[in-house]
Write a structure and sequence with these properties.
The protein is of the alpha/beta class. It has nine helices and nine strands. It is 38% helix and 22% strand.
């Protein structure tokens, strides 16, 4: 028996109240329509919503996108033109050291947020193509970084979709790619790593920073990939969805794609003996 959209909406809303109690997620018409075809009356299951395994990942992706659109203005204001202390003091120095940007580079900035790191590169006369999944975030990035329009091209693209990513290909290959604290926000990172490998020139560099999976998590699981809700900046309107992967899962994905890891840092912020993030440099080695 097919349930009504109204019933589905009520049950999804109740689900998200439980998962995201302090900042309930807004269920858009797009998400509702996307999942209606797969929703069936859960006989005997009380208030559970029954979705297929493959559908749950897709739902999470759409949910994450909607959350980031809702958080975009807060995030842009919180980061301002200079980003916060964590990004300036912990993330940016080692990312930049491993990336070693040069005016001759053409760099892909993945999940660029409000474009502050792209602007940092543009100040060094580097050409950048920056993208984010959130349309609102890209809109705000274009506005904030308009003074660097000659050096930065902003686009909306889906980091979980290889077709969307390959559409970023221009008339020259990227020499380098960078991702600042976004890998843990992306539902499925395999299409991203595969596409970045294809988009880079031979011996091109991919540098990414992400939270340290050994020390930064709200669950007791380590080996099993999973997701959970948390905040990145105190006061943000919506909790976001984090996707946990073990170090071996992240590194093996690099190796399986064809990358060779030749640079690695663990950086601390709150406790000088417990690292908060990892920073990895992967080199494209033609197979």
């Amino acid at each position: 028996m097919k349930a009504s959209k109204e019933l589905l909406q009520k049950r999804l809303y109740k689900r998200n109240q439980v998962l995201n109690a302090n900042s309930p997620f807004v269920i858009t018409d797009e998400i509702l329509e996307h999942h209606y075809h797969a929703f069936q009356e859960p006989w005997g299951e009380g208030e559970k919503v029954i979705l297929q395994k493959d559908d749950i990942m897709q739902y999470s992706k759409e949910e994450s996108k909607a959350i980031w659109n809702q958080n975009a203005e807060f995030w842009d204001c919180a980061m301002g033109d200079e980003s916060n202390d964590f990004h300036r003091e912990v993330v940016r120095p080692k990312v930049t050291e491993l990336l070693n940007p040069d005016p001759t580079d053409y760099i892909l900035d993945i999940a660029c947020g409000n474009g502050n790191y792209s602007a940092y590169l543009a100040e060094k006369a580097v050409s950048v193509l920056a993208f984010d999944y959130s349309e609102k975030m890209v809109e705000l990035a274009k506005k904030r970084q308009k003074r660097y329009a000659d050096h930065i091209e902003f686009c909306v693209a889906d980091a979980t979709n290889e077709t969307s990513l390959m559409a970023l290909k221009r008339n020259k290959p990227f020499t380098k790619a960078v991702s600042n604290m976004a890998v843990m926000d992306i539902t499925d990172i395999k299409p991203l790593f595969t596409s970045v490998y294809k988009l880079l020139e031979d011996n091109g560099v991919f540098v990414f920073a992400t939270q340290h999976p050994c020390f930064v998590t709200l669950t007791e699981k380590y080996m099993t990939p999973h997701s959970y809700y948390d905040i990145a900046i105190e006061g943000q309107p919506q909790k976001q969805c984090y996707y946990h992967r073990s170090l071996q899962d992240i590194f093996n994905l690099c190796f399986d794609t064809g990358f060779v890891i030749d640079g690695f840092y663990e950086e601390c912020y709150f406790n000088k003996e417990i690292p908060d993030i990892i920073i990895v440099r992967a080199i494209k080695i033609e197979r």
